[in-house]
């Protein structure tokens, strides 16, 4: 998919964009001043009081554990040149762990910032990206709104690149089909332009797409857990029973969340 010279700069670029988003939201939290006690309580004892909160939770899950990126990680693992399998496994574990920590922090920071800046100030009506951008300036300062815009650009760029690459991996690995790069990128960006052109609420579509991704998590993780638990496939790198059990429990929790969400939407 990528040669050695292409992959390293790309890894650094995506990592840099993710780090930029994380730094921006650290600054946003400093501007918003959320309650430390309430933030800690919400992290330790999360609650879902209604179907709307469950819907948003599924969206956050889908945006954090992006299912198609699992296939991309597998492809990038194969393309790690001049490294032993053990070294590739260690580096992949490290990369994925760091990425998940950053993604989790960013999602927590977004919720905390929104709660502190909007809800606490009586602006519960703020539910759109455009409104949030305009409302941030009078509430917490112009710098906060500018940083918010920067974070959107950085996250959008990284998501576009990763999504395009993941699509390429899936097409090449499952349907054995390749298409020109310009066509692949056009197909990737077409839905966004379609939504904008029709004037559809972009925030609702964004959340809906993330919720849809949450339903794909189990589809990606179930084969992963099964394959990595097979000694015939993995040899001495087979996952331990503890890891396999933990993966199975996570799959069960995701399926329960999806099932509950479906019952509330139907």
Topology at a glance:
Layout: H1 4-32, H2 36-44, H3 51-64, H4 67-78, H5 85-119, H6 129-140, H7 142-174, H8 181-198, H9 202-228, H10 231-234, H11 241-265
Descriptive tags:
mainly alpha, transport, cadmium ion transmembrane transporter activity, single chain, Manganese transport protein, transmembrane, symporter activity, 266 residues
Describe the structure.
- With 266 residues, the protein is mainly α.
- The chain has helices spanning 4-32, 36-44, 51-64, 67-78, 85-119, 129-140, 142-174, 181-198, 202-228, 231-234, 241-265.
- Helix 3 packs across helix 9 (202-228) and helix 6 runs antiparallel to helix 7 (142-174).
- The N and C termini lie far apart (41 Å).
Mean pLDDT: 79
For the largest beta-sheet, the strand count, sense and barrel status come to: none
Low-confidence stretches: none
Give the N-terminus to C-terminus distance in angstroms.
41 Å
Question: Quick recap of the structure?
Answer:
By secondary structure, the chain is mainly α.
